[in-house]
Inverse folding.
């Protein structure tokens, strides 16, 4: 098993293209105290032709380990800002898939439990020889037994 990390820089490029940002770039500056700052510069499109171009928006992160990590953090800040402006949602489909699988599994267990209860009630109150021949309750212990019970009833 391995972990695949998502790149916020790649996501920022996709969002910038989708919303036709006038400018989106990774920038580096040297602060007055000598700290290296990595960041993202964005220029959003103006809302109309009459309006002047918007001022650039900067997101800065000081380099603590590597510039690559600082750029990723700045890109994450820029994406959060763009989410507030354009109200889009970033979805992790791996997580959504797990949540969906968990819901399906719960539903399947619930349906199976209800079917087992129904079958046991049917067995308890029926004089039908097919149900008795199928083994009724003992066959419900396993899935193949339950399926053979259903086939015997049908």
């Amino acid at each position: 098993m391995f972990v695949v990390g998502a790149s916020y820089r790649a996501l920022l490029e996709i969002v910038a293209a989708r919303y036709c940002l006038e400018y989106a770039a990774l920038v580096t500056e040297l602060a007055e105290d000598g700290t290296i700052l990595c960041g993202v510069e964005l220029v959003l499109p103006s809302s109309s032709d009459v309006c002047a171009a918007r001022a650039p928006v900067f997101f800065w992160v000081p380099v603590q380990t590597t510039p690559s990590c600082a750029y990723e953090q700045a890109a994450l800040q820029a994406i959060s800002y763009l989410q507030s402006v354009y109200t889009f949602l970033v979805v992790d489909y791996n997580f959504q898939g797990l949540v969906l699988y968990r819901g399906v599994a719960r539903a399947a267990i619930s349906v199976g439990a209800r079917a087992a209860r129904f079958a046991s009630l049917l067995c308890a109150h029926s004089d039908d020889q097919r149900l008795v021949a199928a083994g009724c309750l003992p066959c419900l212990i396993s899935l193949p037994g339950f399926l053979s019970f259903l086939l015997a009833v049908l």
User: Anything to note?
Assistant: Helices lie at 8-18, 67-86, 93-124, 129-133, 143-153.
